[in-house]
Amino acid sequence: MDLVELADRLWRGEDPDHASAPLGPGGPLGEVADGVAFLPNFANCSIVDTGDGLVMVDTGSILTAERVFEEVRAWRGARLRRAVFSHGHIDHVFGVGPFDEESAERGWPRPTVVAHAHLPRRFERYILTAGYNAVINRRQFGVDTLEWPLEYRFPDETYEVTTSFSVGDDHFELRHEKGETDDATVTWLPGRRVLFSGDLFIWNSPNAGNPQKVQRYPKEWAEALRRMAALDAEVLLPGHGLPVVGAARVGQALTETAEYLEHLVDATLEVMNAGGRLDDALHSVRPPAHLASRPYLQPYYDEPEFIVRNVWRLYGGWWDGNPAHLRPAPERRLAAELCALAGGPGALAERASALVEEGGEAADRLAGHLAETAWLAAPEDPGIADARRRVFTALAERATSTMSRGVFRHAAREAGRGAERSGAALETD
Question: In 3-state terms, what secondary structure has residue 358?
Fold first, then answer.
């Protein structure tokens, strides 16, 4: 089945097993228009044959760079003239290396990399926070061996608001936008009506709330999506997920994603402007009901609740409105006090276990609180650690998003290792 047919089935809800996960397995390169190829990848790569060399939008990760090179070379042998980085996330920017090496071997000028002016600053921040980024990505994706890179292919050209270039008969227009990142570039190929969105569209609930990453910009993201929709593109090639083909579908996908974000922003601001707390917003703000079934707005990676938190952080700072959280006691001290009042950590762990067996969203949320409080009070107790492991294993199994599963699974592994150090005999997952 080719890419366009698979994308059509997914759009019509006829391919539920695909689940539109933005970080799903890659597939073979395929042409989505004459001279335009799309390579489904951990992060997608798009390639245009201009007749006078190739232009790529995004180039893949360290782990996929060789595969990307081989797939592109199996499709076309022309030299890579330019590469556009849609933003600086490391799954999008590490595939230029093999093309640089090829150019050196064959006496070609190396490819010119183009990106927004903020992108080099992102790379500098990544070097500064390499240890932290390794920790959070190991947790999020469950890869304990992940090492964060310290060397990057910096762009050869940067721009501030808009720029353009021509290769062969093709003219490429680039525009800076803010959304998932502050260094996003949207690339528009007007002669072919092909739009390259980067991660501003990913066939999922927008990654506008990631709990372990820096600030996102959902209002500006929605504005960017509406500007993209006004281009009337015939083909949309996203940073993750499959192509969207047909002007009507492209317009619908972009405008409805914008509406989704606008609703979350407006509803959260309404709570803030009325003097509410973050807790009020978290438990009252929901996405528009009429968009809940859209296959490209499912919370498989991020969650709308996390977007609410990022809106709050953007407009209201880090304080959530609870006065006890302004200058909190150390977590373990508070946990010990609460457990003493409740009859000991065992009582909380037992109740957490009962709640998670009961199931349901409300019970699961309470179970997480109680299991963590018991463990903070008695981290060396093997029975408490085992209860924590079982609770967060269950929460991970019930979670819909990559982010929630990653955090819950990490907590379960952490508790399991603690129990092993204490000599406990753990059950098999």
Answer: helix
